[in-house]
Write a structure and sequence with these properties.
- This protein is mostly helical.
- It has two domains: 258 residues, Up-down Bundle (Substrate Binding Domain Of Dnak, Chain:A, Domain 2); 196 residues, Roll (SH3 type barrels).
- 63% of the residues lie in helices and 6% in strands.
- It contains 13 helices and seven strands.
- The strands form two sheets. Strands 6-5-4-3-7 form a five-stranded antiparallel sheet.
- It is rod-shaped and about 155 Å long.
- The two termini are 112 Å apart.
- The relative contact order is 0.07.
- About 21% of the residues have low confidence.
């Protein structure tokens, strides 16, 4: 049995080798033009369409896999982002449970989207392309059977052409064997040759019919399948891209809802946030319009001019004020009388709607402040000519006890143009030299702007209450600050 198997296997190998040699010989003859080739233009067109369809399908499959890989990468990136939010979201903040639920839903949504893409697009694509290898193999086999058919056809035709020669051989001996054979034997030899030739022709005819049948069966099947396969591509492309578009649309709708919910959680956190410590700052100041240099200089010059006219500040030596002379007493007496004169009363009436100016004295101060008559008149004149009343400040001399100067008591009045008090809710670091540095909890006395046109929206002018109570210079220590960093006190 083993020897029989070896023999069958050897015979099959020899047959296959013979077929390959015959096909190679036939192809060479066809290329040289010594043998004609069976052509089928309709089938060749179907084969071209099949190749194009296979190329397009393979490219679509590759791009779809790339798309799925991108979706998976986006899933991982989104998952890490939500995990980061969960890590930085402090337990006492409102909405922590909501953020955890949003993170869970976000992960489930991405996972579901990826899985549906695989099921409804990628697997369908793989099934669609799975039929191409078999058809491609059958097309190649049909090509080999066509070569076998052409070879058998040419062989049979050559035997048919040799039939006439066989007829002449019967009439006239050609071979030496026929010449040497006796007369009675020559007829038998010729008859044998004719029979042998007929046998070969019959075998060639059988081989031709067999190869023709195999070829035609394969050819008919492929000619039915290839056009049908070519037409099916339209429906497949439509279903594939409709599935992808529908899945992506639903995914983005659900993801939009999650994003909206997350936005609401962040808004709720912002509106219910606790007062942060000095190290935690979440506020943001509105942008300021910086006034130009000319406007600053003009405002500064106007302020200095008003102060120069209204405030004639007199400083006293450390040992206390000198005793006024008789002439100075007379001048002081005249100045006091001028303050209660009708002109002064009219001036007081003019300023009845303006903020009052308190003139304070130390308890131990015995002498009245020295104010010259010319200065009072200048103040009255400026007050009658100006549409906005200047701030009049009269400096008092400090009290002395046994020749020692005592420190002035804390200010109890408010700075010029005082409006209200506010308390800083957040730390604020100044970005310009005309801004205040604030710490959470500090109280600021809000004042009016010298020039209302210079006030920016969302910004206030003021001085820290601590600086004002410490008798620090108002002009040097006042500044602007963002309103949304404070709360009315």
């Amino acid at each position: 049995m083993a020897e029989l198997g070896k023999g069958v296997s050897a015979g099959k190998i020899a047959s296959n080798v013979q077929k390959k040699l015959t096909r190679a010989q036939e192809k060479v003859l066809q290329k040289l033009g010594k043998a004609d080739e069976t052509k089928d233009e309709q089938f060749e067109q179907c084969v071209q369409n099949f190749g194009k369809q296979l190329t397009e399908g393979s490219k679509l499959q590759k791009d779809l896999r790339t798309y799925l890989a991108s979706v998976k990468s986006m899933h991982e990136a989104s998952k890490k982002l939500t995990e980061c939010l969960q890590e930085i979201y402090e337990p006492e903040w409102p909405g922590r449970d909501d953020t955890n639920k949003l993170a869970e839903n976000n992960d489930l949504l991405w996972t579901d989207y990826h899985q549906k893409l695989v099921d409804q697009a990628l697997l369908t694509m793989d099934t669609y392309l799975g039929q191409f290898p078999d058809i491609k193999s059958r097309i190649a086999k049909r090509g080999r059977k066509l070569v076998d058919y052409d070879s058998a056809r040419h062989h049979f035709e050559s035997l048919q052409n040799a039939k006439k020669k066989d007829d002449t051989k019967i009439a006239k001996p050609v071979s030496l064997l026929e010449k040497a054979a006796p007369q009675w034997c020559q007829g038998k030899i010729q008859a044998h040759l004719v029979a042998q030739t007929n046998l070969l022709r019959n075998q060639a005819e059988e081989e031709l019919l067999k190869s023709q049948k195999v070829f035609e069966e394969m050819n008919v099947d492929l000619q039915e399948e290839l056009p049908s396969l070519w037409n099916s591509r339209v429906g497949f492309y439509v279903n594939t891209f409709q599935s992808i578009a529908g899945l992506e649309e639903n995914f983005h709708k659900e993801m939009s809802k999650l994003h909206q919910n997350l936005h609401e959680v962040m808004t709720n956190l912002e509106s219910h946030q606790e007062k942060p410590s000095s190290n935690a700052f979440t506020g943001k100041a509105q942008p300021r319009k910086k006034p130009n240099l000319f406007s600053r200089l003009r405002s500064k010059k106007s302020s200095d001019s008003s102060l120069a006219k209204a405030n004639k500040t007199t400083t006293s030596p450390p040992d206390g004020p000198p005793a006024p002379s008789a002439e100075e007493k007379t001048t002081n007496h005249d100045a006091e009388e001028s303050l209660v004169s009708p002109t002064a009363a009219a001036t007081a009436t003019f300023f009845q709607d303006t903020p009052t100016v308190t003139i304070s004295k130390s308890p131990s101060q015995q002498s009245e402040p020295v104010v010259k008559e010319e200065e009072v008149k200048a103040v009255e004149k400026d007050a009658n000519q100006s549409t906005s009343p200047p701030a009049v400040v009269v400096e008092t001399f400090p009290a002395t006890v046994n020749g020692t100067v005592e420190s002035a008591p804390p200010k109890t009045n408010m700075p010029p143009g005082y409006i209200c008090k506010v308390r800083a809710q957040h730390d604020y670091s100044s970005t310009d030299n005309d801004e205040l540095n604030l710490k959470a909890g500090e109280v600021v006395l809000v004042t009016q702007f010298d020039n209302p046109d210079e006030q920016d929206e969302g910004w206030l002018m003021g001085i820290k209450e601590s600086d004002w109570l410490q008798n620090k210079e108002f002009e040097q220590h006042r500044g602007v600050f963002p309103e949304n960093f404070t709360e009315k006190y």
